[in-house]
Amino acid sequence: MCSLKHACQIVYSGRYMMNTYYNPDDLAKFGTMGEEAPALWDAFMAYYGGVMAEGALTAREKALIALAIAHADKCPYCIDSYTQTCLQMGIDEEEMTEAVHVAAAMKAGITLVHGVQMKNIVDKLEM
Question: Which CATH number covers residue 118?
């Protein structure tokens, strides 16, 4: 029996393709989104490029943030892209996994804190 890590490597290497709504090949088509609206695409790309450039945060830190958000928002294209970006930047699996856990903890906390809204309604209706 192969490990989950090995199975993922097989899937990612293209030796096995899962049926999914998201076609991994579509990631390469992202740039076509500017074909009918080039001015808007160029504006987005300029903004995106500026945001991801070195600043108060390093490009490495920004890549980890992007990877974490990709998981929190469940975008397989972004997960694919930013996993590759992180690896190219020398970010290891342990660092990426920790970033994903930060995103998971934030999602859980955000969900729980919104429970206060429910409690407020309950309190109001029970008066």
Answer: 1.20.1290.10
Higher pLDDT, 71 or 22: 71
Longest dimension (CA), the chain: 62
pLDDT tens digit string along 52-73?
999 999 999 999 999 999 999 9
CA distance 58 to 66: 12
Q: Is residue 108 assigned to a domain?
A: yes
Q: Is residue 99 part of a domain?
A: yes
Q: Which long-range contacts (CB under 8 A, 24 or more apart) does 2-7 make?
A: none
Mean pLDDT, all residues of the chain: 88
Supply the DSSP symbol for 54.
S
pLDDT tens digits, 79-90: 999 999 999 999
- Asked, for residue 40, whether it belongs to a domain, the answer is no
Cα-only R_g, the chain: 19
* Measured distance CA(97)–CA(66) in Å, rounded: 13
Count of structural domains within the chain: 1
| C-alpha span between 39 and 96 (Å, rounded) | 34
Q: Is residue 21 part of a domain?
A: no
